[in-house]
Amino acid sequence: MGRAPWLPLLLLAVALSRCGSLLGQPRRSQQRPQQQQAAPQQRGLFPAVLNLASNALITANATCGERGPQMYCKLVEHVSRQPARNPQCRICDQRSRNPNLRHPISNAIDGKNTWWQSPSIQNGIEYHYVTITLDLRQVFQIAYVIVKAANSPRPGNWILERSLDGNNYEPWQYHAITDTECLTRYNITPRTGPPSYAKDDEVICTSYYSKIHPLENGEIHTSLINGRPSADDPSPTLLEFTSARYIRLRFQRIRTLNADLMMLAHRDLNEIDPIVTRRYYYSVKDISAGGMCICYGHAKACPFNPATNRSFCACEHNTCGESCNRCCPGFNQRPWQAGTFLVKHECEGTVIAFLLIVHHPNIKLIIASSYTTCI
Ligand SMILES: *[C@@H]1O[C@H](CO)[C@@H](O)[C@H](O)[C@H]1NC(C)=O
Ligand SMILES: *[C@@H]1O[C@H](CO)[C@@H](O)[C@H](O)[C@H]1NC(C)=O
């Protein structure tokens, strides 16, 4: 028969760069159930948590001095021992050329020591009710919200709220001056001591951050992920609970000194010495909202695009879509799944097996391989 023997040549591997797995290679999907300690390359990818408030659009529905100069005074405890002239009193004026007299709400997200301030209740009891709204311009997963007061105590009764659409708001956390007011004002059993959470979407009421002290520069830390049951590997419930485009701080009662409380409750505001009522207002030096893009465990980067004012997920794991929320075309071998802290759940291409036999007098070439589709 032939002169030279046919050369059996079996090519089992056709390396298609960047195009997924090859037949015969162990697939990660077949290795389940996963061990608890997943190797880093097996885990989902998550973007860094950033302060999203600095890029937000922020509004407040009342600001000190918005209709011209107003006097306010700082809260100090022993008023009677004050010198007669009021060294603790200052002027706010939104129309002033002097930036030190203006306290717009943008001061709360500018990263500086400047602050926002509300009109004092000398202007009317309705100034207990002031609302601050942040629009983050797109939906993010919010990990925490930190509010820092400036030259007044922290707010007394208030609700931290979130919204996806700017119309329907849901509470994240209630704050009340006393545990009793959690029940009487908000009809919620108070959570005593430092805030703790029994469920991923539990909305608590706490008086922990509504104390009168410190009189200035107090802070309020609200954690939406840490301390919740599935914090280490967030459940769909926790993901939903922490999703927000709008964050609202609905202030409903200014914290007053106990000595002033009775007087304010039982007398006409006009009868009260203005030195007392001018001391009561809200102030906010800083609002931070730590959060990240929602990329469902499939992106480790989410850069901000100044052209669109939006951040976008840099999708990996063969996922596509604004939130990496579907498999890219051609990578539908398995249904899309969110990556988690433990498992990456990447999308995989359709396996196409082929066999190519070349007949030649001198060569018998058999290529048997498979590749994943790449489009
Ligand atoms: C601010 O808006 C809230 C509604 O969120 C309202 O209840 C409150 O009266 C408003 N405050 C002022 C001073 O207009
Ligand atoms: C992005 O936001 C800035 C500041 O709010 C604004 O001036 C600019 O017009 C916005 N750009 C787009 C494309 O919306």
From TrEMBL:
Domain Laminin N-terminal as annotated: residue spans: 41-292
GO CC field: basement membrane
GO terms of biological process kind: animal organ morphogenesis; axon guidance; tissue development
Signal peptide region: 1-24
Origin: domain of life: Eukaryota
Keywords noted in UniProt: Disulfide bond, Laminin EGF-like domain, Signal
An annotated Gene Ontology molecular function: extracellular matrix structural constituent
PANTHER family: LAMININ SUBUNIT ALPHA-2, NETRIN/LAMININ-RELATED
Protein name listed in UniProt: Laminin subunit alpha-2-like
Gene it is expressed from: LOC106543179
